């Protein structure tokens, strides 16, 4: 009895194992085997490289399949001109950028994309798409294309049997991605050091100039040009209140202030002037102020290439001028500046923010 039960159990187990084995199916070797192209090429085996080897830093990787020519005419016949081609076989070819790059004039953030080519006799159009996990180019969503760039066809003498992707370094910051098959080579440049552009600053820059029309001299009639020669200009950034209490809280009394935000506020005198009883030569100066309750002390400084008042050096002070504060006619959300002409070469640079303003008298010689 025990023997029969044991035989039955073995039969069941063997049957189960046989069923499990029937469910497992391994694919054979693909006719268009998958491959990868790396830039730098040696980044593919970075674990074998020294820690300080620059090629350890991978920048680009292309994952693609490699169809064979097999005595066929490829471009213009097997792959028609004027239609999107997956640049390989099977799944759409993927390219991963490990850093932000520039292709043509398009900034491409780091990430993985699909890449296609529309072949032509003399030029191809290379297209980069955000759509992923698709088989080839059929029914793809062209609205997800982010790059379209022309690439010249370069005939080659030797026949390349399998579709191949490679890279050619031009400079440290510029590399060509190349596609070659049959007797056709196509490539396009990739900028590895794309330009960077700042977004809108929270404290946008502005300027005031005296006389006001001296900024727009091409609109001034010839007879009025002499009266509109530039005399003083201030370039500054304009922080906003944004619900904050400014003087005495955000700007502590007794502390030096850049009279703006970001870079040091810059005053340019186009002529020699008198400020605070001191003669100043025409030129550029940094403008600071020590704010106190009831008065400010304006400071003109030799430093014009600094970021705010960090490491303010007293020895570079040109002149200090104390000025009483006044109440502004209205609340000023943003730091504001203007000039008031007092006549006979005398003018006031008026600085106002929140409900407080102060005047810096200037005599233009």
SSE map:
Elements: H1 2-23, E1 34-39, E2 60-65, E3 94-97, E4 101-103, E5 106-108, E6 111-118, E7 123-129, E8 145-171, E9 174-191, E10 205-210, E11 232-237, E12 256-257, E13 265-269, E14 273-275, E15 278-280, E16 283-292, E17 295-301, E18 317-343, E19 346-364
Antiparallel strand pairs: 1-2, 2-3, 3-6, 4-5, 6-7, 7-8, 8-9, 10-11, 11-13, 12-16, 13-16, 14-15, 14-19, 16-17, 17-18, 18-19
Folded structure, characterized:
With 365 residues, the chain is mainly β. The chain has two domains: 34-191, no CATH class; 205-364, no CATH class. Helix content is 6%, strand content 47%. It contains one helix and 19 strands. The protein has one helix at residues 2-23, and strands at residues 34-39, 60-65, 94-97, 101-103, 106-108, 111-118, 123-129, 145-171, 174-191, 205-210, 232-237, 256-257, 265-269, 273-275, 278-280, 283-292, 295-301, 317-343, 346-364. The strands form three sheets. Strands 10, 11, 12, 13, 14, 15, 16, 17, 18 and 19 form a ten-stranded antiparallel sheet that branches. Strand 4 (101-103) and strand 5 form a beta hairpin. The radius of gyration is 35 Å and the shape is elongated. The mean pLDDT is 92. InterPro entries: DUF2911. It comes from Neolewinella agarilytica. It holds the Pfam family DUF2911. This is DUF2911 domain-containing protein. Keywords: Signal.
